[in-house]
Every structure is written in C-alpha cells, then in structure tokens.
Amino acid sequence: MNAFPVAGVDVSKHFSDMCILTPTNEVLHRVKIYHDPTSMDRALGFLQCAEQQFAAKPVIVMESTSHYHLLLFQFFSDAGYEVIVVNPLQSNALKNISVRKIKTDKVDAYRLALLYRMNVLRRSQIPTDMLRSLRMLCRQHYELKGDITRYKNRLTALLDQTFPGFSKIFSDPAAAGALSVLEWYPTPSDILTAAPSELAQIVQKASRKSSEYGSQKVALLFNCAEQAMRIGIHAPGDSILMRAIITVLRQLIESVRLIDQRIKSLAAQEAYIQKNVTLLQTIPGVGLFSAAVLLSEIGDFSLFRKPKQLAAYFGLDPSERQSGTIQSVRNQISKRGSPYVRSVLYMIAHNTVHANRFGSVGNPVLAEFYQKKCQCKPPNVAICAVMHKLSNIIYAVLRDQTPFELRAPEIHANMICRKAA
User: Fold this and answer.
1) Between 206 and 414, where is the model more confident?
2) Among the listed residues 134, 124, 95, the one whose alpha carbon sits nearest the alpha carbon of residue 112
3) H or E segment at 22?
4) pTM of the model
5) Which three-class secondary structure state does DSSP give residue 246?
C-alpha cells in the first residue's frame, strides 16, 4: 500500500470534483472546484491539510479532458504537487467496477484515485509550452484548411448554377485571379457591362501574369457570360451571396498564411525543435509543416522505447478480436492516436510510393514494398503498411539523431547484423 494520500479529479468545463483518499483508501475529503482563483485556492488548502496529516504530499490524478484539465494541471504543478494526467480510455475501464450502474462526477473522482492504487496507469504526456503552441497552430491549420475546402465547394456550387462554364476558365475558383473577378463582377450580367481593358487589368494584376494572359481570359469570360445569361439560374441575391463567400474565403486563406508563418517562426526559435524538424525533413516526402505536425504531436520522444510504441501512439497498431475459438481475420488499425499524424503520414506515404509528374518516386524502397503489398492486399491496406514503415523510420531518425539515409533492405539487414555481432 502506498503510504501517501491520492486525490482524483474529475474534470468538466465549468467545475471539477476532487476526492482525496487516505493511504488506506478511505475518503478524506470531497471538494467541488470551480475554475476560479478562490475555489482553486480552497482545494489547495484541502491538499495541504492532507499533506500535514499524513506527512506526505498527495499525488493528484486527472483525466485528459480536452483542454479543460490544463488549468488545474498548471495550478497544482506550480504548487509543488505531482499531477498525473491519464488517458480517458484507461479511466473508463473502471466504470463497471461496481455492479450498480452509477455514473456521477463524485464517483468518477473516487475511481480515478483508486486507479492510481492499482499501479496500471500510463501517464499522458503534457508537452512543453513551445511544443503545445506548435501543436495548436498545426491543428488550427488543419481546421482552417477544412473550412477553406467547404467554402470552395459552396462557391463552386453557386457558380455551377449562376455562371456555368466559369470553372473551365479558372480551374480553381479560389485562385487569386478568379476571386478578384468575382469580387468586382459577381454575376454574368456584371461581366457583360464591364470595360474589357479594366477587367483585363484586374485579372493580370491578381494573377501576376502578362497582359496577353489577361486579354485571353477576358475574351473567354465574355463568351462564358453570354452563355450563362441564357442557361444560368439567376436570383436577386446572387451578388451579395457571392461576395459574402469570397470575403470569408479571403479571410480563411489569410489566416492560414499567418499561421504558417508563425509555425515557421516557432520551429526556428528553440534548438530542440529546430534540430528535430530539420532531421525529419531529410525523410523523403516530409516538409516543414509535416515535420512540425509530427514533432508537436509526438511531444516527449524519450517516452517511446520501441518503434511499436510510437506506431501505437499514432494509432497504427492492429486491433485484435479473439474469443474462445473465434479469431477475427479482418483486423483494422486501432485509430486511437492522433488523427492529425495519420493524415500527415497518409499524404507522405501517398507521395512517397506514387510517381510524380517527372516519373520518379520519393522512396524507391517503399515504392517497391507498396507494389508487392498491392499484389495480395487492397491498396488501402498496403498504404497503411507503408505508413507503419514510415513510423519506424521517424522513430529511427529521432532516436539516433541522424539524417535519413536511403538503403536497400539487404544492406540495412547487414548493417544491423554487424552492430549486433
């Protein structure tokens, strides 16, 4: 039995419940903590009383609950207490410890404290301030990119109705030239009333192309506008709707640009981040943003002692189902890790094994491995196998702190044998 008290904290948005257990697992105090200085100081007082009574600092256990646990983690850590943050998947395992079906915040806090006594906890890591900032920026980049895609689709849908044929002139409706034209002249009737020279100048300036390019686009726009007036669907609110979508798109694109600048700046501020981001970029297919996502989501790399642990952290480990004589043959990856990492790994894997426009592949070894897998497995399964290989490569680069080196499988096997000898 541990000879010190344990405090379990069930975290929610506006308040949290804390249950302090004695070394003999008896309830010493139950405290409701509102997330304000007065209530948090009161909870700290109960912890200090327990410390004086048992001559040992209580250990505090709480779930990783979105971002709500960070305030309490920072507060109690600054007060000198050991705070353990656990994955909710672990704490949920205790929900059926009692036969009765009871689910309350007080009970959850008590169960979290008991969970520590079982010595089965695996701590969730709390990244440094710099890594947390980098992680938040990278995740926000993804969220904004998703918003941009949604608004592009809305713009495309509106153009298909009001301005059919516009997509043949500008393949990307969110391109600078297309947005400038639609911002000034949102409907086909507006295009037809525009001065050709003025319209050509708008296209040329926004697209940063030659005057000849602008004149060609204007000729196509007038022809398309005439056809759209005949077959398009027109309504009085088209202009304001078009301009509203364009305004939001421009703001989203500018926000992504500013975030990317900040990611680049943060990656160069701290020596640890700068070194590891540079190392990760030596892997074919990994750019600055991909490296920043990987490093920020990994956090403290020293917690991973085997390549399989990192793959499991990414959610690439296979799930298994077996009961009695029944053995599942359609196992899938667990997907319990960061979806942002898996998204990055998928793009890296796809770009690595498929030929680019010049006919070359990023990693010939992985490309050959992918082709062999595709002979007996579906393409999605094969690409998951490549992602797992990339996870192992990332582990090796960060563990050895050396740049990536492309080797044939037999050469790599010989090098491992020589090291083991």
Assistant:
1) 206
2) 95
3) none
4) 0.77
5) helix
Start-to-end CA span in the chain (Å) = 45
Question: 326-327 and 322-323 as β-strands: parallel, antiparallel, unpaired?
Answer: antiparallel
* Closest-CA residue to 149 (of 126, 169, 133, 173): 173
- The phi, psi pair for 318, rounded to 5°, reads -75, 140
Confidence check: pLDDT of 276 > 90 = yes
Tokens 């395992």 belong to residue: 93
How does pLDDT run across 134-193, given as a tens digit for each residue? 999 999 999 999 999 999 999 999 999 999 999 889 888 888 999 999 999 999 999 999
- 8 forms beta bridges with 19, 61
**Total Cβ atoms within 10 A of residue 169:** 19
- Which residue, among 176, 179, 184, has the nearest Cα to 208 in the 3D structure? 176
Token pair belonging to 233: 């669907």
**DSSP structure class, residue 33:** E
Nearest 10 degrees: Cα torsion 331, 335, 340, 341: -60
State yes or no: pLDDT of 324 exceeds 50. yes
- Calculate mean pLDDT across residues 81-104: 64
Contact 168, 216 (CB under 8 A): no
CB-CB neighbours of 118 under 10 Å:
9
Left (φ > 0), alpha (ψ -120 to 50) or beta: where does 315 sit?
left
Q: Which of 244, 273, 266, 247 is nearest to 141 (CA)?
A: 266
Rounded Cα gap, residues 309 and 307, in angstroms: 5
Q: Residues 322, 314: contact at Cβ < 8 Å?
A: no
- Residue 99 token pair: 């036969």
Query: What integer is the mean pLDDT of 388-403?
Result: 94
* Euclidean distance between CA atoms 154 and 341, whole angstroms: 28
At residue 58, what is the residue type? P
Give the pLDDT confidence score for residue 327 in this predicted structure: 55
Write the pLDDT tens digit of every residue in 39-54. 999 999 999 999 999 8
In angstroms, what CA-CA distances link 82 with 4, 60, 73, 76, 123? 12, 6, 9, 8, 12
DSSP state of 327: E
